[in-house]
């Protein structure tokens, strides 16, 4: 393997991992372990395995065609590209609001901003919006992205250390009258669906893998082979998947059955997550872990806003531009997309003020309900009709894809049945 070529290829998969390790890991995986022990681990593993093909197909399609999945959706027909455009518009405000709320919680816990602006409860949330959009508009994202990856590595190493130390130490002692919660009751089942919605992240964000892959090709002037592209993607994906297991373990060993529970507010929740580390590593590590956790969430937040803005820019171009012509003011579309996203998401945060868990579960559930549509579209685009035969997935990947589509569709239909029928 030519390591110079690998160096030119690495990036999109790592960026995917840094974006995925956010709400799904720090919040949902920790809640799963704290409330249910290891009982929900099977659902987390199933979501990571059965959603894997549809994320991998994004890297595969970009390698095969040099285009993004969004371009592929247009080849499926106007209905497909319009449906994806509508899905993006309907989900992006809730998803962004949830990620910003978690980011603001870790920032407020680290800097104590709510105490300085007690008369404006949403000040930390507003600050995250302003700084995120400002950085993206100023073009300083590349520098910050490199910095976030360094600090994200700190969180990765810290999590692995704490994970191993926690396993060696063993689980905390359960209270005498502890009764495990029932899994197959409505409340638990709805949480399971929300948990899988962003495990490892929302499936409609698979297009971002292809967007970043194509951008990497342009910036390096190098088109990687399929093998090189998949090495990059698999590295990022399975690191993210493994870390979700680590966070479940921390919640299960340190909180489950002890009589303690995770706070319902974003700031208190952030403090509890950080204390999962300090319980094992010592209080000296609080500032390090607090900074790393906030930084990885802030990186997730910036990647999310950039991804949605690029998605709107690309879909707008494909839908409204004339044939063989690009929208000349695409930068303007990008800017207005950021502004629209910030205003809409902040409104969602204001409406759900004080309802941390409700907003998180709603956003993740929306992502899970639209996942089957994205899965079917991605699977169709890697057939021989749209890419060359050497790039078509093998029998095992095809089999897992069918299982994944059945899995996602079945749970989505179950949720609709429970909630509306």
Give me the CATH superfamily: Amino acid/polyamine transporter I
Beta-strand percentage?
under 5%
Specify the biggest β-sheet. Answer: none
Counted by DSSP, the helix tally is 17
Distance between the termini: 55 Å
Q: Which structural class matches the secondary elements?
A: mainly alpha
Shape: globular
Number of strands: 0
According to CATH, what is the class?
Mainly Alpha
Blueprint (SSEs and pairs):
Elements: H1 3-9, H2 12-20, H3 23-36, H4 41-65, H5 69-76, H6 78-111, H7 113-116, H8 123-138, H9 141-169, H10 186-197, H11 206-220, H12 226-254, H13 266-281, H14 286-320, H15 330-351, H16 356-381, H17 395-420
Helix pairs in contact: 2-11, 2-12, 2-14, 3-10, 3-12, 4-10, 4-11, 4-12, 4-16, 4-17, 5-6, 6-8, 6-13, 6-14, 6-15, 6-16, 8-14, 8-15, 9-12, 9-14, 10-16, 13-14, 14-15, 16-17
